[in-house]
Amino acid sequence: MEYRKINHQDKDEEPEVDLEISRGGTVNNVAALGEILGGKTQWKRKSLVTFALTVLTSSQAILIVWSKRAGKYEYSVTTANFLVETLKCALSLAALLRIWRKDGINEDNRLHTTVEEIIVYPIPALLYLVKNLLQYYIFAYVDAPGYQILKNLNIISTGVLYRIILKKRLSEVQWAAFILLCAGCTTAQLKSNSDRVLETSLQGWVMAIVMALLSGFAGVYTEAIIKKRPQRNINVQNFYLYVFGMIFNAAAIMIQDFDAVVNKGFFHGYTSVTVLMIVNHALSGIAVSMVMKYADNIVKVYSTSVAMILTAIVSVFLFQFHLSLAFFLGTTVVSVSVYLHSIGKLQR
Amino acid sequence: MEYRKINHQDKDEEPEVDLEISRGGTVNNVAALGEILGGKTQWKRKSLVTFALTVLTSSQAILIVWSKRAGKYEYSVTTANFLVETLKCALSLAALLRIWRKDGINEDNRLHTTVEEIIVYPIPALLYLVKNLLQYYIFAYVDAPGYQILKNLNIISTGVLYRIILKKRLSEVQWAAFILLCAGCTTAQLKSNSDRVLETSLQGWVMAIVMALLSGFAGVYTEAIIKKRPQRNINVQNFYLYVFGMIFNAAAIMIQDFDAVVNKGFFHGYTSVTVLMIVNHALSGIAVSMVMKYADNIVKVYSTSVAMILTAIVSVFLFQFHLSLAFFLGTTVVSVSVYLHSIGKLQR
Predict the structure, then answer these.
(1) Would the CB atoms of A336 and B180 count as touching at under 8 Å?
(2) CA distance readout (Å), A145 to A9, A74, A133, B165, B246
(3) Which residues neighbour B317 within 8 Å (Cβ) at sequence distance 6 or greater?
(4) CA distances (Å), B141 to each of A107, B134, B191, B334, in order?
(5) Closest CA to B282 of B245, B255, B310
(6) Is the pLDDT of residue B13 over 70?
(7) How confident is the model over B219-247, as pLDDT tens digits?
């Protein structure tokens, strides 16, 4: 499989190349030097997109808390989601225009496509739509804090589907780290009423597991689509992902908020915070695609988990949040997990 | 150092020997076969004492809960501690008598000793005495559930002192596992009011850390004493440890419970549960010594942590305890820690 080969190159060979540089090995061949510099660039790009995703995800959660403090959501969430997809689409097109002006149009960066290439792009958008619709029903069985905890099942489902669908292997230490990531994130979110989660009915559990599988599958499937054509420009790939995102989110407006939009207008209840949130979600979305292209879903999961911790720490200063002992313990476990994941890779 | 050499043999070479057997390697030498069978026996003995310690520690905690349910402690704890030491002493002597009858008295199993050998034995008993006395004062700063949580600092202090004093190394994965063991045990013990621990005053923290260091040091020092003379019979070593335990616990009776013993009698308030607890503590104490001899402090810490989990699970059936989400998450982290510790060893 094409995407497997590329990813293998991306992930496994870089550290060795970096090691060679740091050891000051004798590089007496221009081709080898080029390869090393290429590896270094790839590593830098991977770190950059991961860092961007972490910062954007943290600020995203902080914006949500901020907007909640300012009052309830007065705007239709579906219209905001549609605008997020539209903005992502526009940004991808803008990036493409720049590239076309600089490098000219070629086979890798042209928008022209085949049915065979495009046929898979609606699938992730459709999966997310189903997941978001299910979200409205799960609250009949689980309360909001309980749902926050059950959402951590995402971590496990992503790991399992990553293994099954992308056929990429994690070492034993990395699997252990992944279980710890899930346990640590959940521990950090424990509140005095968290035990209620254990009383979730069978329907609630089934829905939570189905939603975790849908979201894990959408993530892993997106990675498969993007990595399948490694030469294809990421902005073209993003453009197609987001066009279908726009289409399915337009459908969601019709299903859920048609009356509100017709009666109160498309932009009813929008504030400057709403606009900031839309911009932030759009940039985070692009960062996620970049992480899929240059890293993988595992990096994405770690990045968003670390963002969750960062958000809580920043919230202490911004909103006088109280950090619990559970948060401290969860953070310790997540930190050890990140460490184990990184050393687990070298031992493969 | 003598004890290092022996321990190294104990820990690192056995798994390889075991591996050879399971792979069905060609063993064409009687000496090699003897060594392998010896390794197998050592491994069996190590597993047996670890298993015994785990079961005894779990049942110990269950007996404590049971005796508390039946009412408050009516007896003097110091007299019970003294009887525990006395019983351990008697059991060691009984074991020695059997050995003398069977093998005769030799250099390794005779009670006769030198000043140089015996001079170190009072130290662990003295350290435990200081720690137990401090325990009375720490409750001015921390409540009982808070103290249960702070006691997990023991795990970290044991690991650090094990590294510094016994100069034995843990792999990176094993260190990570050790931090996880501490975080997992604490998580499993979280209660709705556990956050109060974070408000512990500086004095409380200092005392908790000093107590953790005292108890860690006592454990590691005992291992050093026992391993320093690997040929010496463990029952002789135990006999000396417990004789000094008796002496220092007699001192504790004088300091703390002199009046109660004089006025109400030595055995006031004893019930059949008290007797069971004394027998259990004595057997656990002997199991700890055996683990120090045939395994090490790290195994001891894991064994008692796993016992904590087992106790809680058994308590669900015995006392209708409610298992919290925190307990489930803590148990997951402890289990992963045990797994990582075991695979961390092989990768050294």
Answers:
(1) yes
(2) 41, 21, 19, 47, 54
(3) none
(4) 72, 12, 19, 29
(5) B245
(6) no
(7) 999 999 999 999 999 999 999 999 999 99
**CA separation (Å) from A220 to A159, A321, B83?**
9, 34, 63
Q: Do B326 and A324 touch (CB under 8 A)?
A: no
Long-range CB pairs of B23-32 (<8 Å, 24+ gap) are: none
B198 contacts A149? CB cut-off 8 A: no
Instruction: Identify the band that residue A30 occupies on the pLDDT scale cut at 50, 70 and 90.
Output: low
- For the stretch B292-337, pLDDT in tens is 999 999 999 999 899 988 888 888 888 777 888 999 999 999 999 9
Q: Output the pTM of the full model.
A: 0.80
Shortest distance, CA A173 to any CA of chain B (angstroms):
7
**Torsion angle defined by CA atoms of residues B304, B308, B309 and B313, in that order, rounded to the nearest 10 degrees:** 130
CA distance B220 to A176: 29
The whole-angstrom separation of Cα A280 and Cα B215 is 52
Taking the Cβ of residue B334 and every Cβ of chain A, the question of whether any pair is shorter than 8 Å is answered with: no
Q: Do A173 and B340 touch (CB under 8 A)?
A: yes
**Of A215, A338, A260, the residue nearest A78 (C-alpha):** A260
What does the CA dihedral B156, B159, B160, B162 come to, rounded to 10 degrees? 150
Residue A179 has its nearest CB partner, among B194, B336, B347, at B336
Chain A nearest C-alpha distance from B109 (Å): 45
User: A179 in contact with B at a CB cutoff of 8 Å?
Assistant: yes
Quote the longest CA-to-CA distance of chain A.
72
The alpha carbon of residue B116 and the mean position of all alpha carbons in its chain are separated, in whole angstroms, by 26
Please tell me the distance from the alpha carbon of residue A111 to that of residue A214, in angstroms, as a whole number.
29
Are the Cβ atoms of A190 and B149 closer than 8 angstroms?
A: no
